[in-house]
Amino acid sequence: MFIKNPEYFVAIVKERSISRAAERLYLSQPYLSQYLAKLENSLGVVLLDRSHTPLKLTEAGELFYAYLERQDYLDRQLISDLGDLRNKKRPVLHLGVSPWRGSVLLPEVLPAFTRQYPDVQVILHEAPVPQLEELAVGGVVDFCLMQIPDNLAELTYETVMREHVFLVGHRDHPLLEGLESSFQAPRPFPDLRLLERERLMMLPSDWRLSKLLHNVFAVHSVEPQNILVTTNNTTAINLAAEKMGFAFLQESGLSRTPYLEQLACFTVGEPPLTCSLAVVYKKNGFLSPAARTFIDLTKEHYRPYDRPVE
Question: Cα 305 from chain centroid?
Answer without folding.
Answer: 17
